[in-house]
Amino acid sequence: MSLRLSTVILPYRRWREGGRSAWLRAEQLGFHTAYTYDHLSWRVPFRDGPWFGAVPTLTAAAAATEQLRLGTLVTSPNFRHPVTLAKELISLDDISGGRVTLGIGAGGTGFDSTALGQEPWTPRERADRFAEFVPLLDRLLTEDTVSYEGDFYSAHGAQNIPGCVQRPRLPFAVAATGPRGLRLAARHGQAWVTTGDPKLYENGTSEQSIQAIRGQVAKLADACAAIGRNVAEMDKILLTGFTPDRARPLESLDAFVDFAGRHRELGFTEIVIHWPVPGTHFAADQKVFEQIAMEAPAQLGWVDGG
């Protein structure tokens, strides 16, 4: 099974002061996709520093690059509405020439959850909204005109002509581990995203993480089987940095190849590593990072153009 290597470039640098150069370098290094986080602000130490919007950043990256795929990892309903998001995504897909993937998840209880003045939603409320958000967004990106009245979201004659460059729409990479989210991923996702089991981050072991992720993959397969879909059709994306391994896979080429190989055996088709951010838990040696980008794909059987 071939394995793609992608990266996440956090939007904390001004475009003319290192932002643009990172996206250009990501393309030069041969990454399959460069994603960015879609937050209004993020956790410490980024909370009180510069942080730029995902869609404008990706639009600039689309204009600066030619082949690199681009995406969010992930967008959530915390501060998004399907109608306005669909319009932005169709525009971004057009500007990029059809190079956009939408990573999408239910959101959490971080800064985004209260920035618009609301109380943080409970896990049940987040799941309820996500269950309505994803199918409506799917329709908005595939139908010229949509009207809908739901419990949380409405669309009244929302027009999205000419639609996406990618047909029938740009791909969804659905982040989910719970049963309802996995059902959404099975029905609407071209890919599934996980960061592993967050309960294991502090005190778990690598082997416990592998077992937990194996269980997640099995549940995804069950969700696909329930609707008659072959789980092998779906890409499976691991966003690294949140398992007990933390930054260890980026310490050397051999360490990364070992880490990625163990997860490829679980069925993953794409591994995503964070562009190094000095002074944070995403700190890494830039030279080692670039060596991994240039040499690991061949060792892991990655086929260009996949």
General description of the model:
The protein has 306 residues and is α/β, with parallel strands linked by helices. Helices cover 39% and strands 16% of the residues. An eight-stranded parallel β-barrel has the order 1-2-3-4-7-8-9-10, surrounded by seven helices.
Rounded to the nearest angstrom, the radius of gyration is 19 Å
- Distance between the ends: 11 Å
Main sheet overview: 8 strands, parallel, barrel
In one word, what is the shape?
globular
Spatial order of the strands forming the largest sheet: 1-2-3-4-7-8-9-10
The total beta strand count reads 10
- Helix residue percentage: 25-40%
Order of secondary-structure elements: EHEHEHEHEEEHEHEHEH
What amount of the residues lies in strands? 15-25%
Mean pLDDT: 96
Q: Structural class from helices and strands? A: alpha/beta
Q: Pick out the low-confidence regions.
A: none
Put simply, the count of helices is 8
Write the layout of secondary structure elements.
Elements: E1 4-8, H1 15-29, E2 33-36, H2 54-64, E3 69-75, H3 82-96, E4 100-104, H4 123-142, E5 145-149, E6 154-159, E7 172-175, H5 179-188, E8 191-194, H6 206-226, E9 235-239, H7 253-264, E10 270-274, H8 286-299
Helix pairs in contact: 1-2, 2-3, 3-4, 4-5, 5-6
Keywords summarizing the entry:
two-stranded antiparallel sheet, eight-stranded parallel barrel, 306 residues, alpha/beta
Summarize the structure.
The protein contains eight helices and ten strands. With 306 residues, it is α/β, with parallel strands linked by helices.
